[in-house]
Design goal:
Blueprint (H helix, E strand, L loop, with lengths): L1 H25 L4 E5 L2 E5 L1 H33 L10 H11 L6 H8 L6 H11 L3 H8 L7 H14 L3 H13 L10 H18 L1 H4 L11 H13 L6 H14 L8 H11 L6 H14 L3 H12 L6 H14 L4 H13 L3 H7 L7 H11 L4 H12 L10
Antiparallel strand pairs: 1-2
Helix pairs in contact: 1-2, 4-5, 5-6, 5-7, 6-7, 7-8, 7-9, 8-9, 9-11, 11-13, 13-14, 14-15, 16-17, 17-18
Length: 398
C-alpha cells in the first residue's frame, strides 16, 4: 500500500509539472459536458486530477480486495510444504519453534538483503554455534545504525567467554548511550534486554558487579536475590578489596533496605555475618527483620553474633530474647537460647527448670539428652554429630 501511495504521489507531481508548463500561455482550459440533461463545466486540471484520483481509488480497492481474498484462501488452504509459505510465515514458524539453528541457511539468506541486519544475524547464528571469535569479527563490519544491536551481541559473547571486564565496560557504555531514534518504538523491549544483561553480569560475576556505576538500580528483585546468593557462595575466595567493597555497598543502601523484600534483607544479613567489624549494622538489621516477622535463622544469626564477641553481654542478650518472647509466643528456640545463657552465666538451676518445657520439640529434646550426658564428652560429640547433620538443627557456637 505504501508503494501505491508513493507511485500516485509521484504521478501527481509529474502531472502538476506538465500541466503548469502547458498552461503557461493557454490557461487551464475549458471543458463542457452535456448528457441526459446533466451539464458539467470544468477545466483540464480538474478533469485530469479527477481521473488520477479515480485511478488511485480503483487501484487501492483492487489491492485491498486481493489481499483480503488471499488471506481468506490461506485460511482454508492445506499447507504441504514449508517452502510454499511466505518468507515472513517461514520466519514466524522458525521463531515459534526456536529452530533458527536448524534453518540457519534460510534465515541468513532472508537477511542477506538487509544492509541493517545482515551482520547482526550472521553474528547471532555464529554465537549460537559458540563461534565467538568469528561473531565478534563480523560485528566489526555491522551497520553503524544498528550500533545498539551489535553491542548487545558483543556483551552476550563476552558473558559466554567469561570476560567480565569487557562485558561490564560495554554494558556501562551502552547504558549511558542515547537510544537511536529508529528504536524508540521498541524502547521498553530494549530496556528489558539491558536489564537481563545486567542480571547476567551480576549473577555470573557477583564481585565485578559491585564496581558498576549502576549498582542496585537495574536488577529485578529475583535477580538481586540470585546475585546475593552467588555473592555468598563465592565469599571465601574474595580479595580484601572485594570484601571492603561489599561493606561499602551495604552502607550505601542501608537507608533504603525498608523497600526490599524480606528474603533479600536476610541474604544481606548473612553477608554481614562474615564481617565482625559490622556487628552494629548486623544487629540493627537482624532486629529489624525479627520485628517484621519471626525467622529462626535470623534469630540464630543474631544470637550467634552476640556470643562470638570477646565479652558477650549476656544480660542484654537475655533482655532481647524476653522482648521477642512477648511478641512471639510459644517459640521453643527462645528457651533453647536461654538455656545456653543460663549455663554460661552460672544459673544452672534456672537452666534445669527450662528443660521441662516443650517436651515434643527436637531442640529441647537435644538439650535434655545433652544434660543427661553431662561430663561424657565423647557421647556429647556423637550426639552433636547426629543433630548437626540435620538441616533443621541450629548449631550454637558457645
Amino acid at each position: 500500500m505504501k508503494q501505491i501511495l508513493w507511485v500516485y504521489g509521484l504521478i501527481a507531481l509529474i502531472t502538476l509539472a506538465l500541466l503548469s508548463v502547458l498552461s503557461y500561455r493557454s490557461g487551464a482550459g475549458y471543458i463542457y459536458a452535456y448528457w441526459n440533461n446533466i451539464q458539467i463545466q470544468t477545466n483540464v486540471w480538474i478533469l485530469v486530477y479527477f481521473f488520477v484520483a479515480l485511478s488511485f481509488l480503483g487501484h487501492s480497492a483492487w489491492y485491498i480486495l486481493k489481499r483480503y481474498f488471499n488471506q481468506e484462501r490461506r485460511k482454508i488452504e492445506t499447507t504441504f510444504s514449508f517452502n510454499r509459505l511466505h518468507p515472513y510465515e517461514q520466519l514466524g514458524v522458525i521463531w515459534l519453534l526456536e529452530g533458527a539453528q536448524e534453518k540457519k541457511d534460510f534465515v541468513q539468506e532472508v537477511f542477506n538483503q538487509s544492509g541493517l541486519l545482515k551482520q547482526i544475524i550472521q553474528a547471532r547464528l555464529l554465537f549460537s554455534q559458540q563461534h565467538y571469535a568469528e561473531a565478534l569479527n563480523i560485528l566489526e563490519s555491522s551497520s553503524t545504525s544498528a550500533f545498539e544491536l551489535a553491542e548487545i551481541q558483543r556483551i552476550e559473547i563476552y558473558l559466554a567467554q567469561n570476560q567480565a571486564q569487557q562485558a561490564l565496560t560495554h554494558l556501562e557504555f551502552l547504558n549511558g548511550h542515547e537510544l537511536s531514534p529508529w528504536l524508540s518504538q521498541v524502547s521498553q523491549a530494549y530496556k528489558n534486554k539491558l536489564q537481563v544483561l545486567w542480571g547476567g553480569v551480576a549473577i555470573q560475576f557477583p564481585f565485578q558487579y559491585l564496581h558498576s556505576t549502576q549498582f542496585g538500580q537495574l536488577l529485578t528483585l529475583d535477580t538481586k536475590q540470585k546475585w546475593l546468593t552467588a555473592l555468598l557462595s563465592q565469599l571465601d575466595t574474595a580479595s580484601l578489596e572485594e570484601h571492603e567493597l561489599v561493606q561499602k555497598r551495604y552502607l550505601n543502601i542501608e537507608n533504603h533496605l525498608d523497600v526490599l523484600p524480606y528474603e533479600i534483607k536476610v541474604l544481606w544479613l548473612k553477608l554481614l555475618t562474615h564481617y565482625p567489624e559490622m556487628s552494629q549494622q548486623h544487629q540493627h538489621l537482624a532486629l529489624q527483620l525479627l520485628n517484621e516477622k519471626f525467622d529462626q535463622d535470623v534469630f540464630y544469626l543474631l544470637f550467634q553474633q552476640h556470643l562470638l564477641r570477646q565479652n558477650p553481654d549476656y544480660d542484654a542478650i537475655e533482655q532481647q530474647i524476653e522482648t521477642l518472647e512477648k511478641k512471639y509466643l510459644g517459640i521453643p528456640v527462645f528457651t533453647f537460647a536461654k538455656w545456653h545463657i543460663y549455663n554460661a552465666t552460672g544459673k544452672t538451676q534456672q537452666a534445669e527448670q527450662l528443660l521441662s518445657l516443650y517436651p515434643d520439640d527436637a531442640l529441647m529434646n537435644y538439650l535434655r539428652i545433652k544434660s543427661t550426658l553431662k561430663g561424657n564428652d565423647e557421647l556429647i560429640m556423637q550426639l552433636n554429630s547426629i543433630f548437626e547433620n540435620d538441616a533443621n538443627f541450629v548449631k550454637f557456637k558457645i
